[in-house]
Amino acid sequence: MSWHATVLTLFPEMFPGPLGLSLAGRALEEGRWSIETHDIRTHGLGRHRNVDDTPFGGGAGMVMRPDVIGSAIAAHRPAGDPRPLVYLTPRGRLFRQEDAARFAAGPGVMLLCGRYEGLDQRVIEEAGVEEISIGDYVLSGGEPAALVLLDACLRLLPGVMGGETSAEEESFADGLLEYPHYTRPAEWNDRPVPPVLLSGDHGAIRAWRRAQAEEATRLRRPDLWAAHLSRRMAGRPSPQDMTGSVATASAGP
Ligand code: ADE
Fold it and tell me: Which residues line ligand 1 (CB under 6 A)?
């Protein structure tokens, strides 16, 4: 059984979308993972297949009904399904590399994509849903967030990225941002590459990259830097050591 994603959405046409191309697309063709989408609308009520209603207590927007979402989940989630049921919402816990690693290590995920103001809270509690946000901004729906979550998981599946990257990630898995990269030409628009990179001195290159990674993390991500420093003080390994670091992972092709 390959890694399997089930997506409940009002817009099934959004999937696999970009995940049908590039590395994830090739892995999909090779059967390393699979995806099934279900249109929540088919569980809607009445002639218009309504899925939402106005919020109790008043306020703007519409809320997705618990009975509709509950029946969509019941219809597509087999009893005892070991996969986590994830609801993408800006109210959720922030998605991190270790979540991607946890999901990738299991049999797959079931994703629930909301629209409107969100989902009735009771169905979230009833169904044992894990609420996840991909960042501190509001998207018009959970679908792009689901694509992001899936992409982060898929590149960790065996055989999806090829061998090289994981070793590279592990060697640098310190919760730091990645060092900057350079390639040919050695001089471009009067800009030479940092001379150390042409020196052939691998120790010096490693030290330079490390310093660059630390500096970028300190300046750009004080949150990651503080976490890195406190781990270093405690002599503890990075939480990403098992998984490839947050930001040191090379992106796809
Ligand atoms: N739906 C809307 N905004 C979102 C976000 N930032 N993360 C996850 N799901 C969302």
Answer: 88-90, 133-135, 137-139, 142, 145
